[in-house]
Amino acid sequence: MDTFRLGCELSDYGRLLYEYDDSLGMYGASQQRLKAVFRNPVFYYFSLIIVMLVIWFVASLIFNIVRHGFLASIGMNIGGFITLFVISLIVFSSFGGVWSKLLKRLIGKKENKQEMVSIVENKRNAIQIYQDWLVITNLGIVEVYDIHMVEKVRLSFINNKKGYHMAFYAVNGVVKFAKVKIPCQRYMIIRLQKIFGDKLVVERPYKKFVIQTTKSARDIILPIAFVSLAIILGAGLIVMHYLVSQSVPIILGIFFIIGGVAAICGILDFIPILKDVVLPFLVGAVFFGFPYMILYTTYNANGLELTASRFFQVFNPIGVAVIFLGGLGLLFIIKAIKTLIEYIKYRGK
């Protein structure tokens, strides 16, 4: 009896730990991922930010009604409310898979939609790993397995496709192959290592792992030389701020430097730590700090002191953007730090 294979599909598999579907693009969201939204801490993180903004809106509305009257308060807060509405729409639509559905609607004519969906489903290869179950889809056929019976997982490198195929070895001798191609990216392998631990065996094309890239030296050197000009310009602006005139905004120099370094990380995206750690950290730093620094500079230029009472006095679009982008930036920074810790933890594996 094949106790490894369940023999039927379930309506709820529990907590989703890992998923990869080669029929979906970078904006795609599978039904399994949509079902797992309410188990995703990021969903509650953004929900908390939205709730805080709503509380600020209500408090600002009431405070300004008392001071300036109803109509004046509505006029003062309407811009911030519209901004909050747009942000909420974008956030919850993203978690609800709306953008994925919209992109699918834009592909092909309506009369061919059903046929196109059928073709995609018949060629679909995917894998979902849950706490208790392993769901493998090969050419549209879905099979469910007991993950607790897996004693070894093998990732086999496919040189011509630059990815990995997976094979699952059960304690009863059954072997199940997954046709989905796992991208050859280090953070993807680390996620699997966190789930399977020593059960995971990764086959590499060489005894010593060598980073491969299709970029030529010209494709790397010339762009780096170009974006380095932004770093030099940023350093020059900072020097001018201290030696020539303090009216030269130092924030602009910092922005050019961070932007240049981030661009270099993008050019050298075949180096995992630059792509998965340094780049998200820099993006997070920009989102977290720059909106506030721009607001602070604007206040100083108008001879005003930026205080908490002045900032929260009116629910305005700029304040909403500062808080939301700051929260988004903090999320990027946390993710970068978490990835760095995982890189260090699994460096020997």
Would you write up a description of this structure?
Helix 2 (41-68) packs antiparallel against helix 3, helix 7 runs antiparallel to helix 8 (250-267) and helix 9 (272-301) packs antiparallel against helix 11. 56% of the residues lie in helices and 15% in strands. The strands form two sheets. It has a four-stranded antiparallel β-sheet, covered by helices on one side. Strands 7-6-5-8 form a four-stranded mixed β-sheet, with helices on one face. Residues 108-121 and 206-212 have low confidence and may be disordered. It is built from eleven helices and eight strands. A hairpin with a 4-residue loop joins strand 5 (150-158) and strand 6. It is α+β, with helices and mostly antiparallel strands.
